[in-house]
Design brief:
six-stranded mixed beta sheet, alpha/beta
Length: 413
């Protein structure tokens, strides 16, 4: 085999294997895109070279499994000192198939199999959370349920049903642990063609300046979904947590704040004080800190806000996020446990584009609508004014709730 060399060893092995068995071979190679550079290029070329020998002396069919289509491979060849984007090595694809998300009946059937095998059930709220948080993404469904049912000590007690609280805790552990699937997804955010799609979604921009190829690539990754009747959005709520928390992790870890500053003796989270502190911090340091978000400068202020909130809320609560292209805003929901119940606070973020009064009027109405949907007791609207050369003093303000309707405090930054 050594005589075949690194550029032919795989091809020779597959030829000998096929010749030794008269039954046509079907070969599946999982995580093919974990190979990089000249190694991946060599594998593709050897698979292509054996095509005309099949089925007698080469596998009849080969399935390459990975998170990207072969057409999206961009391989830097050290041997050739160039980036290889096409050619015969890539001309091996007969068809691309994407594993779709589980439907609701399929998720329920999977959970029913666990119940039938172990006797352990799921509460109705736990099932709802599994469905909504994963949006049926196969790896997330399985990983979330495994974390709650097997890796958690309480979850291994089959006499106890899996509750909504167990699912929320399992989600947080998955995100913090950054298993390979989530880590790979996070690393894709560094790619420029991914940023061109993701950043406008995070800002709620009215439109997106990317090519159809960029959008197709990010959809194939499973990072973004696009309903038939709507604009692109982050594919599911767990990914919606992973994206900003990955982008702002380094900033979050170095922000100068402590949870104890914002939690009173009754364990109540003082959201007013939390936002006032952020406003002061933003006024003094935003220009410097926003630059830490590398190529995601446009969404830098929003990421800085989320890093500030996450650093505090990590002490006992959680943040839920909603954003999509064309929304013109980012909806944040702070969920904080106190006295055996959950207290909910909405923080909505808008960028000043249409004039201050119009932006505030639209934002207050949107904040109230979101508060009504999620049962929040208080709402806060943050308006980021990114107008160059405008004095900082004109951008910074706080307006107490006024007028009829649910009270919403407006913060200018």
């Amino acid at each position: 085999m050594s005589s075949a060399g690194p550029g032919g060893a795989l091809s020779v092995t597959l030829s000998r294997w096929a010749a030794a068995d008269r039954t046509p071979l079907v070969l599946l190679i999982d995580e093919i895109d974990a190979l990089v550079g000249d190694t991946l290029l060599s594998v593709l070329r050897q698979l292509r070279s054996g095509y005309d020998q099949r089925p007698a002396a080469f596998p009849h069919s080969i399935v390459l499994c990975g998170v990207r289509d072969v057409r999206d491979y961009r391989i830097y060849s050290t041997a050739e000192n160039r980036l290889v984007l096409g050619g015969s090595a890539f001309n091996i694809k007969a068809k691309s198939l994407r594993l779709g998300d589980f439907s609701e009946p399929e998720v329920r059937a999977l959970l029913a199999q666990h119940t039938a095998a172990t006797g352990q059930g799921f509460t109705a709220e736990a099932v709802r959370l599994i469905l909504t948080r994963t949006a049926g993404q196969p790896w997330l469904v399985n990983a979330l349920c495994r974390e709650a049912c097997f890796d958690d000590e309480v979850g291994r007690d089959r006499a106890r049903p899996i509750t909504a609280e167990a699912i929320v805790a399992a989600q947080e552990r998955l995100i913090l642990r950054r298993d390979t699937h989530i880590d790979d997804l996070a690393h894709k955010l560094r790619e420029e063609r991914v940023r061109r799609v993701v950043e406008p979604i995070l800002t709620g921009a009215a439109e997106i300046a990317c090519s159809d190829e960029d959008l197709a690539y990010v959809r194939d990754l499973g990072l973004v979904a696009q309903p038939d009747d709507g604009p692109p959005r982050i594919a599911n709520p767990i990914y919606a947590e992973v994206v900003p928390r990955h982008l702002n992790y380094a900033v979050q870890e170095t922000l100068p704040q402590q949870m104890v500053w914002y939690v009173d003796a009754d364990e109540r989270l003082d959201v007013e004080a939390l936002l006032a502190a952020f406003q002061e911090f933003f006024r003094e340091h935003s220009e410097h800190w926003v630059q830490r978000f590398e190529q995601y400068h446009e969404v830098g202020p929003q990421l800085l806000l989320q890093a500030h909130l996450q650093r505090v809320v990590n002490g006992g609560g959680r943040i839920e996020r909603e954003y999509a292209l064309g929304r013109g805003r980012t909806d944040l929901l702070i969920v904080w446990p106190q006295g055996g119940r959950e207290r909910r606070y909405v923080v909505e973020r808008k960028v000043l584009r249409k004039g201050l009064q119009r932006t505030i009027a639209e934002g207050v109405e949107q904040t109230r609508s979101y508060m009504d949907r999620c049962g929040a007791e208080a709402g806060h609207l943050i308006v980021f004014d990114r107008t160059p050369d405008r004095p900082c003093a004109d951008k910074i303000f706080r307006r107490a709730p006024a007028g009829a309707g649910v009270p919403v405090t407006v913060w200018g930054m």
